[in-house]
Amino acid sequence: xxxxxxxxxxxxxxxxxxxxxxxxxxxxxxxxxxxxxxxxxxxxxxxxxxxxxxxxxxxxxxxxxxxxxxxxxxxxxxxxxxxxxxxxxxxxxxxxxxxxxxxxxxxxxxxxxxxxxxxxxxxxxxxxxxxxxxxxxxxxxxxxxxxxxxxxxxxxxxxxxxxxxxxxxxxxxxxxxxxxxxxxxxxxxxxxxxxxxxxxxxxxxxxxxxxxxxxxxxxxxxxxxxxxxxxxxxxxxxxxxxxxxxxxxxxxxxxxxxxxxxxxxxxxxxxxxxxxxxxxxxxxxxxxxxxxxxxxxxxxxxxxxxxxxxxxxxxxxxxxxxxxxxxxxxxxxxxxxxxxxxxxxxxxxxxxxxxxxxxxxxxxxxxxxxxxxxxxxxxxxxxxxxxxxxxxxxxxxxxxxxxxxxxxxxxxxxxxxxxxxxxxxxxxxxxxxxxxxxxxxxxxxxxxxxxxxxxxxxxxxxxxxxxxxxxxxxxxxxxxxxxxxxxxxxxxxxxxxxxxxxxxxxxxxxxxxxxxxxxxxxxxxxxxxxxxxxxxxxxxxxxxxxxxxxxxxxxxxxxxxxxxxxxxxxxxxxx
Length: 575
Description:
The strands form two sheets. This protein has a six-stranded antiparallel barrel with strand order 3-4-9-8-7-6. It has a two-stranded antiparallel sheet with strand order 1-2. It is built from 19 helices and nine strands. The chain has 575 residues and is of the alpha+beta class. The chain has helices at residues 8-27, 38-54, 63-84, 91-104, 109-125, 129-150, 196-212, 216-232, 236-256, 293-307, 345-351, 416-435, 442-453, 461-468, 472-476, 479-505, 511-532, 542-558, 565-569; strands at 29-30, 33-34, 264-271, 282-287, 312-316, 331-341, 362-371, 385-397, 403-414. Helix 1 (8-27) packs parallel to helix 3 (63-84).
């Protein structure tokens, strides 16, 4: 190594050879036992570092630092390999370790490719088809990157950058490190997968896995990378099949857009000295399909009880900050919070429009913690504040593994009026989405309607309006309350549309139920009307009068079938 340190390419080649040698020695087993004692390997690495630092002739060069970096990388691979053999039951930790080992082989594409494939197989075993598809996408990007380095071919993907539509994480496969050597040297990248046919096979596997996991858009993007290859080879039968597959995928998207569940997200924080590196760590977990908080809590509690049978494992249900000084050192604590993807206004209006957009390449998430100024978590509507915590992950999800570390935190406090606006906006959006479902879901629509227009629901829309909109002077002076007032108007219109939709879906056996809901809707609007139709304290400008007239026309059309509508448009009661 000392002899080759003056030549950058030669030294990189030596380091790759050492890494390959360690993978062979460290990974070898016989009868479930390591062929070589890992402790001896660690001592050898330490000796190597000591020799490099004692060599006076190399003082002032980068040689000692490079040897130290190499030893640290090799030691990490060694430790992770040993740990991996002991944690087969904890698939979260197992995949973390496999990912770490794959990263350790960044300068050896053959080994990295093998570990990416191993990770994909493990994900398939655990039912994580999306993550398995991501592993195969990274494997494809890795092969494409080295094929592009070897010989630029116009119909092949131009390295890993061509895969960014599938995942932003593929840039990890860029061959830009000083340790990267030419794929033509020393039998590098000579396996059958580092070829055009190998790339086609990897891409096909990735697309199939995405389709299995209901990620049809990702599968279509992968298939599109195959089109130029088949066109260049005049493979017309393959092209015909490929276009049929892509068409089928988009048909699936159109037919299942409102019925797909692309995963659930959870923030998980660990506390306890028995956890070693996990103590104080915080992750975002991506779980398959519709996973409930109680199900996730039970799963992790059972997992860590089995891993640490001598310890008590306690689930922290409060999403607030944890005071570690108050925790029992002998226990293991797991704090689990359900998350929603977080987007700013620009993202929602420009980039995040579909269900797929709102679940793909996500780095920011949000969870809410209720509080009051008196110190209690919950209080009256007008005293109920909310703290929104926005967290940022190390990598966008979905990723090569199902959990990624949290690296940034940001807190925003919402006033009681802002909390009410958010609540009404969410109710309105859910009702709008359910009403526009194709095919329609009558059962879900009726459940949401019942919760929306029932005048007996505790802290429902009526209670919110009575709490914030009764005082016209207060509303006139508050932009937030005026916005809340507009939210209620939109909500009433959506309720009317939902009632109309439900009338089209029900049979004769539910006609009386429909009439009862329509009567409830009339009562609901009668109670809200005094708070929504009054004039401002200092008189309404012409534009506001036009808006008021338009609102009355819309609300009249939304339930024109009701005989009691005149009572709604001319309210007698005052708040």
